[in-house]
Amino acid sequence: MNATRYRAPPADCLAMVPLDDLVAVFHRASGITHLVTSPVPELLEAMAACWMTLDALEVEFELVGGGRASLLTTLDELVVTGLIERA
């Protein structure tokens, strides 16, 4: 069984501008600007043009305990918004 993988667009396809606690993410391909908070910018940077599994993301962000469910929810939301893709 293959693990689900996630990938964000290459870094040059997104423009990220910090706005205090929020980050404005402009997705050049869609022309849509998203307002996000941590850990979304960090996830987008980690997955820029690179397929990563949920396990690899857990290791990358040193998640323990109940962090997996929260991470999965965030990834699902990012897929729906079009900021990342799932394979």
Please outline what is shown here:
The protein has about 90 residues and is α+β, with helices and mostly antiparallel strands. It contains three helices and six strands. The longest helix has 15 residues.
Keywords, please?
3-stranded antiparallel β-sheet, alpha+beta, globular, 87 residues, single chain, 3 helices
- The order of strands across the largest sheet is 5-1-6
> Globular, elongated, flat, extended or rod-shaped: what is the shape?
globular
**How much of the residues is beta strand, in percent?**
25-35%
How many helices? Answer: 3
Q: Low-confidence parts lasting 5 or more residues at pLDDT below 50?
A: none
Structural class: alpha+beta
Helix fraction, binned, reads 25-40%
Total E-strand runs: 6
Report the major sheet.
3 strands, antiparallel
Could you characterize the architecture of this molecule?
With 87 residues, the chain is of the alpha+beta class. Helix content is 33%, strand content 28%. Strand 2 and strand 3 form a beta hairpin.
Which secondary structure elements does this structure contain, and how are they paired or packed?
Elements: E1 5-7, E2 14-19, E3 22-27, E4 32-36, H1 40-46, E5 52-53, H2 54-60, H3 67-81, E6 85-86
Antiparallel strand pairs: 1-5, 1-6, 2-3, 3-4
